[in-house]
Design goal:
The complex is a heterodimer of chains A (592) and B (441). Chain A is α+β, with helices and mostly antiparallel strands and 592 residues long. Chain A contains twelve helices and 21 strands. In chain A, strands 1, 2, 10, 11, 12, 13 and 21 form a seven-stranded mixed β-sheet that branches. A six-stranded antiparallel β-sheet of chain A has the order 7-15-16-17-14-20, covered by helices on one side. A four-stranded mixed β-sheet of chain A has the order 4-3-19-18, covered by helices on one side. The longest helix of chain A has 20 residues. Chain A is globular, with a radius of gyration of 23 Å. Chain B has three domains: 154 residues; 113 residues, no CATH class; 120 residues, Cytochrome c-like domain (Cytochrome Bc1 Complex, Chain D, domain 2, Orthogonal Bundle), CATH 1.10.760. Helix content of chain B is 41%, strand content 5%. Chain B contains 20 helices and eight strands. In chain B, strand 5 and strand 6 form a beta hairpin. Classes of the chains: A alpha+beta (592), B mainly alpha (441).
Chain lengths: 592, 441
């Protein structure tokens, strides 16, 4: 390849969910498009072939589909006065790599945001007053409403073949669905995946307590399904190999199983794997992107020129590339000025395990990332009165089994020996007879939680690593304790023999060694004001109007939901505006 | 050496003995070789070119004359024959390397009479025996398409790899005299139902379905060129390491109770609720039948359904084995291997998932008397065709590395005898042969 390949209309950086959505839209519009993906080419065949893919050591532990941290990682610190150190082994979160991105190895829990999540600051102010928002909290409203996003949520659910039961169909509450969801224009395209034993028990107990249990909306197709693009999906058989694995059954929605098949043979799209972008190229006055520079697999630095740049890498990589490219003013926690890197957020999880007698057979190896699980949304978002609780936001509370893989998901009581004959005896006694109820809660945004470039550590190409400054705040400890207590009450109603609790206590630091969630958000947030956001409501950069930034980096604060549904909705919302308005008259879509 | 190859050598030897006589004969006028002075009876119009493009789909010219990484229709596909490798030719309108200088008569002689511009008989890998049944009108359209609808490609096709004396063509002429009929001698198909007649025309003529699906005789000639020539027509055959199932409805191995709509769906979409295409049929669908008009696809279905049924009890689903698997009864040899390797997609009831994972119960490719295809797909996997209506391709992985010959034979025998399937067992030897035959591919 020459160092200056032919200029194209658009270059896409990162070929995961949002990269695929944008590639579809832009090639539909007739543009010539190059997609640059840092990792290798990947497809169901041959990469996810049965039975080779069902290998927990190779994928679940060694992370063959993840970004190799020895070449590039992030550094992490808890406080501004600390020196950050590199995240050298996977723990707290995993970073996708390769065509399909993390969309190949996610669980498929497919949520829309609640309407109030999208105007969270205004909503909290209206209902609880200014004192409910802590002095160091920097939460903001989204510059887009639920009603505006709804058609795009609906479309993505159809593309991804989501299985679930509607709770609010055009304003009418539907039995057995989520009564707290915003009004949906259409039901889910597929009925729920069949419940598994542990979620049946959870749902029964939750209903006894007056809560609204419903099937987890799952991007695991419950039946043979053809999506609006004509791509067919297979039915999930609850094999238990979703998260950290590619789906061999074509049933978990991923770019590969839903969008990429129709793009594969398009002559106006070229996908270049093993192309690690190092910079977004700008013209001399820095107001216009002119392409992207990347290092190919031979180590050559290539410049791909393009009129339109789509930044659709993972949340952290989006922020890092903006910082490395000098786009937008970097956030300064001392002054609160600047925007790039601002409002990094995460999620706080907890769980309560139930250990039953040997006559209770839960068959936990039957499971899926999302399908077959049951969930309550009663204590999420602002679905409940927070008066006097001392926190804002909430958590999903859910149960089921994602496969009970032997290495990572051996759920034993806290007092069980960690190794040897005692461990084996405990494994034999509890493996088939235990389950857990999990909570997944929102993390707000704060003045001292942000991303910037590390002053010390560099990647294999000599570029500064991204530095994360993050720790828990009072709001999260209280939010998690509240959700955990609710989860515990449900578990107690299931009458197990014993109970184990996993909850981060007040004062405990963020522990990166333990897997919690890959739902990292913020750093390139969207807003109505260029002084407090990086992108406008159409995901367009305020500073460089021919640059659009996709993904969860746009979230001003985190939610108690999985992010994929929201970020896909934002991507389709942006894509429609690019198609209908931007391509006809390139320029800012919102006046600053 | 495969039995087919042995047979071919015998034929080759016999033909050589006859050589002297034939040499004399070729010098005489070849009545069945057409006339190169023939010209188009109509001007080349865009409508004629478009019609020719459709006939090229019906005749699946691309299957052999277009290969990946070469310009369309510039040839270069190596066809393995017992005597060496024949390369398909460049049929673009390039004047040097293609057929740009050919008259309609030249073209017609090659397509329908099996004779090239140097008066040499073509290798019957070119299905001119079937194309002879193509109408003059369709042949003219095809000529118009290859003159004005295809981009010329100045790409030489590679030379045939057949050594002297086997490269002598006179035995091919003898073969042609014995087994091909000149177009003039063939009556167009007739049937009370015009759709059946149209289907017969496509299947027997341009579609050349019998080239794979009709068994061959002692000299590798198809045993029947049309429905009228007897029950051997489309009765199933072994070809190129695959078994092409019978297309006659009825019995265990045929199309059973497929409706004409099932057949049409299979041809246009690459699969239906009863099965999915794989192997050599996948490219035939991708290049050819996926573009059939709904009417033509239905006509093919109607014609195939009109063929007399072979004897034998038709498939009837039997739920006993599904019940046994559900109850955890795994005593039948192969049952455990089936659950471990196959049931995730094809399910314990053998019915698969409609439109996604094909059923094994009653699937003609599974219960075919000739087991080459099922052995090969189980060993090496397969992929469904890519068609405009089926943009997602499903792949089945191969299990050659996971099951040895004995385990594979047991598993395939289990599949061929469960859920109402009543096919003969598969032997270890067949699996071993399948492994060897495909090793070099």
């Amino acid at each position: 390849m020459s160092p200056r390949p032919k200029p194209v209309d658009a270059v896409i950086i990162g070929y995961g969910w949002t990269g695929a959505i944008m590639a579809k839209t832009l090639t539909d519009a007739g543009l010539s498009v190059v997609a640059l993906e840092r990792g290798p080419m990947r497809d169901t065949s041959p990469d996810f072939s049965y039975p080779q893919v069902a290998d927990e050591l190779r994928h679940g532990i060694r992370g063959e589909y993840w970004q190799p941290l020895a070449r590039e990682t992030v550094t992490i610190r808890h406080r501004l006065d600390q020196e950050a150190v590199p995240y050298r082994q996977y723990g707290s979160f995993v970073l996708g790599n390769g065509v399909g991105g993390a969309g190949t190895h996610w669980n498929g829990q497919q949520w829309r945001a609640s309407p109030e999540d999208l105007r969270f600051r205004s909503h909290v102010l209206e209902r609880y007053g200014a004192q409910a928002i802590g002095p160091d909290m920097t939460i903001q409203d989204y510059p887009v409403t639920f009603e505006e996003l709804e058609p795009h949520f609906d479309h993505f659910e159809k593309v991804a073949g989501v299985s679930g039961r509607a709770g609010n169909l055009r304003g009418t509450l539907m039995p057995g669905g989520n009564p707290f969801e915003g009004p949906r224009s259409d039901a889910f395209p597929n009925p729920p995946v069949a419940d598994i034993e542990s979620s049946i028990r959870f749902a029964r107990a939750a209903r006894e307590l007056g809560y609204n249990a419903f099937p987890m909306p799952a991007a695991n197709a419950s039946r043979a399904y053809t999506n609006p693009y004509g791509v067919r999906m297979g039915p999930c058989n609850l094999c238990g190999f979703c998260e950290r694995f590619g789906c061999f059954l074509y049933s978990k929605a991923s770019p590969q199983t839903t969008i990429l098949p129709i793009l594969k043979h398009r002559t106006n799209l070229e996908v270049r794997p093993n192309a690690q972008v190092t910079r977004i190229l700008l013209d001399s006055d820095g107001k216009r992107a002119v392409g992207a520079a990347y290092v190919d697999e031979k180590g050559d630095l290539i410049e791909q020129r393009a009129d339109l740049v789509i930044l659709s890498a993972f949340q952290m990589h989006n922020v890092r590339l903006l910082l490395l490219s000098g786009i937008g003013e970097p956030y300064d926690p001392a002054t609160g000025k600047g925007v790039v890197g601002k409002n990094y957020a995460y999620q706080m999880v907890s769980s309560v395990s139930a250990y039953f007698d040997k006559d209770v057979h839960l068959n936990p190896f039957i499971g899926a990332g999302a399908g077959g699980q049951q969930v309550i949304d009663d204590f999420n978002s602002d679905h409940f009165d927070h008066t006097g609780l001392g926190f804002i936001g909430g958590s999903l509370i859910f149960a089921g089994a994602t496969g009970a893989r032997p290495i990572e998901q051996m759920n034993l009581p806290p007092d069980a020996p960690r190794w040897g004959a005692g461990w084996k005896a405990a494994a034999a006694a509890h493996y088939g007879h235990s389950m857990s109820v999990a909570t997944m809660g929102a993390v707000m945004s704060y003045r001292d939680a942000y991303l910037d470039l590390d002053p010390t550590y560099r990647d294999a190409l000599g570029q500064p690593l991204l530095r994360m400054t993050f720790n828990w705040h009072e709001n999260e400890y209280r939010l998690a304790a509240h959700a955990n207590a609710k989860a515990r009450s449900i578990v107690e109603a299931m009458k197990p023999k014993s109970i184990g609790v996993n909850l981060i206590k007040p004062g405990e630091n963020y522990d990166v060694r333990r897997y919690q969630s890959t739902h990292t958000t913020g750093g390139a947030i969207m807003g109505a004001d260029p002084a407090t956001s990086v992108i406008n409501r159409y995901s367009q950069s305020w500073d460089v109007p021919n640059l659009f930034v996709m993904g969860a980096s746009a979230f001003p604060q985190n939610l108690g939901y999985n992010p994929t549904g929201l970020l896909a909705g934002l991507a389709y919302f942006s894509a429609a505006e690019i198609r209908d308005r931007y391509l006809k008259a390139p320029g800012p879509l919102v006046d600053a | 050496m495969t039995p087919i190859a042995k047979k071919a050598w015998l034929v080759g030897g016999a033909a050589a003995v006859l050589g002297g006589a034939v040499l004399t004969a070729t010098a005489l006028s070849d009545r069945a070789a057409g006339d190169r002075r023939e010209t188009l009876s109509q001007p080349v119009t865009p409508a004629l070119v478009a019609r020719g493009a459709y006939v090229a789909r019906l005749a699946d010219c691309a299957a052999c004359h277009s290969v990946p990484d070469r310009p369309d229709y510039s040839g270069g596909l190596a066809m393995a024959l017992p005597i060496g490798r024949v390369m398909t030719s460049n049929i673009t309108p390039d004047k040097t390397y293609g057929i740009g200088g050919w008259s309609f008569g030249d073209f017609d002689r090659a397509v329908r009479y099996g004779v090239n511009r140097r008066d040499q008989s073509l290798y019957p890998a070119m299905p001119y025996v079937a194309y002879a049944r193509m109408s003059r009108a369709d042949t003219e359209a095809l000529y118009a398409y290859f003159s004005a609808g295809v981009a010329p490609a100045a790409t030489p096709a590679p030379r045939n790899e057949i050594l002297f004396p086997l490269s002598m063509r006179f035995p091919l002429t003898l073969w042609r005299w014995l087994f091909a009929k000149a177009p003039e001698a063939i009556a167009p198909p007739s049937a009370a139902d015009p759709a059946v007649a149209r289907g017969a025309y496509i299947v027997e003529g341009p579609g050349h379905c019998g080239d794979c699906h009709t068994p061959r005789g002692f000299a590798l000639q198809v045993k029947a060129r049309s429905a009228a020539e007897g029950p051997a027509f489309l009765a199933g055959a072994s070809i190129d390491g695959w078994s092409a199932p019978s297309l006659r409805a009825g019995g265990q191995g045929g199309l059973g109770d497929w409706t004409s709509q099932d057949i049409a769906d299979f041809l246009r979409h690459g699969g239906n609720a009863r099965g999915a295409a794989f192997g050599a049929m996948a490219p035939a669908i991708e290049h050819g039948t996926a573009r059939l008009t709904p009417g033509d696809a239905e006509a093919i279905g109607r014609f195939l359904k009109s063929l007399p049924k072979p004897p034998g009890r038709a498939f009837a689903y039997d739920a006993a084995e599904a019940r046994r698997l559900k109850a955890g009864e795994l005593s039948s040899p192969g049952a455990q291997a089936y659950l471990d390797n196959c049931a995730a997609c094809h399910r314990s009831d053998g019915r698969g998932y409609s439109g996604v994972f094909p059923p094994l119960a009653g699937n003609p490719a599974v219960v075919d008397e000739r087991a080459e295809s099922i052995v090969r797909i189980a060993l090496f996997g397969g992929q469904t065709p890519l068609t405009p209506s089926s943009p997602a391709q499903f792949s089945m992985p191969g299990f050659a590395d996971r099951l040895d010959d004995r385990e594979m034979a047991q598993l395939l025998t289990y599949v061929r005898t469960s859920w109402g399937n009543q096919a003969r067992p598969v032997s270890r030897g067949e699996v071993a042969r399948g492994r060897r035959a495909s090793a070099g591919r």
